[in-house]
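Q: Got a minute? One more chain.
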Amino acid sequence: MVERQNKPSAIPVSPVVPTPQVSISDDNSRVIATLPSGGRIEVLLHGATILSWKSTDGSENLFLSDKALLDGSKPVRGGIPVVFPNFGPPNRQHATGKNSQHGFARTTRWEYLGKSSSESSSLPQSHGDASVKLDFGLSSSMLSEDDRAKWPYPFGITYSITLSNEQLETSFAVRNTGYEAWEFQVLFHSYLRVDDISKVAVQGLEDTGYVDKIINGRKYPSGGAIVFTGETDRVYAQALKQPVTVMEGGDGRYEITRDMLSDVVVWNPWEEKAQSIADFGPDDGYKSMVCVEAGSVNGWLNLEGGDTWEGGQRIRVL
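A: Always. Here it is, folded:
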């Protein structure tokens, strides 16, 4: 057989690049996304609440009460619930005055709109696609008749959750789909998991005054880093410095960067309050969590008819 001098080379076969995997639970209650690198999130459609966020090594970054009810009967205690259109007990003099505490977004079933993923890296040792974004939707037509009667304003929200290696982003796009302006508040109620609350310090708010909700809403000027020796419930308004960092044992644990969210709430129930909360568990679970909540809750955001407001946060594991 005669060998050809200009024998064509074989066509290279592109390697199969792993991509993020997204699935829906059998009971259609949860959306789970996993990165090729091992990062994972689980979102409950009830309240669009992030129940779990795991790093590439499988370690959990969020605290979820072992008594949390996940059947839609009440808001989830832990993870990252979303607060809209009012924060805390409603102001009876405001248009949200008939709403329940923290509003209806965390108690209503959201719609899963779909996913998108980023381009994969061409660098050696790439784990494939670097991130995956899940979109969820809520509109006024999806509310219960009772909630629509209490807050009768037309709206639509797209909630985007983006998971990448050691990083989680949550963002809201709130649309006023009517003609009349209305006001709202918004917050991501993040329960961050720690090993020992007594070794935790929250830095980055030293130049910001705060309202202490434990001491009758008394206002305090700026202070040092926040450490925990008892029940803590503070609202830091107009916290312009970025980022806010959660330290533990002198080392960085989490870094929170905010976009269009000027306020930060810091909360830990401590022993007595934790034991008084029916769906908080275990009783000493307060030792393993700290809430550092990015939001806009000091006053009200005004949204004109047809306009959209966008804001969000990024939490990075250090």
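A: The chain has a mean pLDDT of 93.
Q: Perfect, thanks.
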